Amino acid sequence: MKVNLVKYTPEPEKMVAVAARLCYSPAGGEKLFENLNNEEVVKLVRFVVKSGHLSTTEHVVFTFAAEGVSRSLTHQLVRHRLASYNQQSQRYVKFHENFQYITPPAVSNNNKVSDKFAEMIEKIHAFYEEMLDAGVEVEDARYILPAASETKIIITMNGRELLHFFTVRCCNRAQWEIRQLAILMLKLVKKISPVIFENAGPNCLRGPCPEGKFKCEVPPKASDFDA
Ligand SMILES: Cc1cc2nc3c(=O)[nH]c(=O)nc-3n(C[C@H](O)[C@H](O)[C@H](O)COP(=O)(O)OP(=O)(O)OC[C@H]3O[C@@H](n4cnc5c(N)ncnc54)[C@H](O)[C@@H]3O)c2cc1C
Q1: How high is the pLDDT of residue 90?
Q2: Atom of ligand 1 nearest to the CA of 173
Q3: With a 6 A CB cut-off, is 164 part of the ligand 1 pocket?
Q4: Which atom of ligand 1 is nearest to the CA of 169?
Q5: Residue 163 has what pLDDT?
Q6: What's the pLDDT score for residue 176?
Q7: Helix or strand or coil: residue 121?
Q8: Fewer Cβ close by (within 10 Å): the C or N end of the chain?
Q9: Per-domain residue ranges of the chain
């Protein structure tokens, strides 16, 4: 899996701080942008994130390019509605050259099934090719492709949605692959916005675990998410 932070709102923490200060100031946003110093920015951002005044974090957006992930992962990812996505199409991109797929570690580490998994994928791939050769359109042949198929996706989320996404997807209850993606994304944004995201991650980093009987035995540590 590869994920890069390709674009983001410049000076995101200052943007959030300006939005917060504007609510209580006679000055306009432009003046505040000129006048707020670093110390005030850090204080304001900490305050709004801690107090839940999270609409201020909606003014900053982060765009990621992910590849080497499965269709299974992206199916889970796009359930997060307050985000924008563009994904490589299986209608317009043929999968007959370099057919890539993701093998879950639980399969590759299990020698009772790992070879068979690869064989089944090969069979599916061969039949996909057979359908294309028989004149089936790419958009219809793709119905046979597995959830393991590799895909590429561009994701844009604002600060508030990212905080929510990290809460549910950095948690050990999330599936390994989307969890891996969420952790990589969190590490990337922490480098740019260390204050907005300083306590980001699963609920258990900030309070009691809400998972009840599904609570994990070894909860993650804050340092697992450090940049
Ligand atoms: C461990 C785990 C297991 C899961 N298992 C399943 C499963 O078995 N089956 C399944 O279908 N899904 C499952 N999901 C997906 C889950 O139900 C959500 O669809 C997904 O996590 C997106 O999160 P969300 O709906 O909170 O928020 P997002 O879409 O990311 O939106 C963020 C927040 O905005 C608000 N919001 C967004 N849209 C609305 C709206 N229409 N109305 C009101 N408020 C809104 C909510 O407060 C929401 O939390 C699972 C998720 C996790 C993390």
Answers
A1: 87
A2: 1
A3: yes
A4: 53
A5: 98
A6: 98
A7: helix
A8: C
A9: 2-84+151-225, 97-147
pLDDT at 95: 78
The residues of the chain scoring below 50 in pLDDT are: none
CB atoms within 10 A of CB 89: 11
> Which residue, by CA, sits nearest to atom 11 of ligand 1?
79
Q: Determine the pLDDT at residue 164.
A: 98
Instruction: Supply the DSSP string of 51-111, one letter for each residue.
Output: HT-GGGGGG-EEEEEEEEEEHHHHHHHTT--SEEEEE--TTTS--SSS--B---HHHHT-T
Residue 153: its pLDDT value, please?
Answer: 98
Q: Which of 21, 142, 169, 179 is catalytic?
A: 169
Active site residue 169: yes
Domain 2-84+151-225: CATH class, spelled out:
alpha beta
Distance 55 CA to ligand 1 centre (A): 19
Q: Is 168 in the pocket of ligand 1 (CB under 6 A)?
A: yes
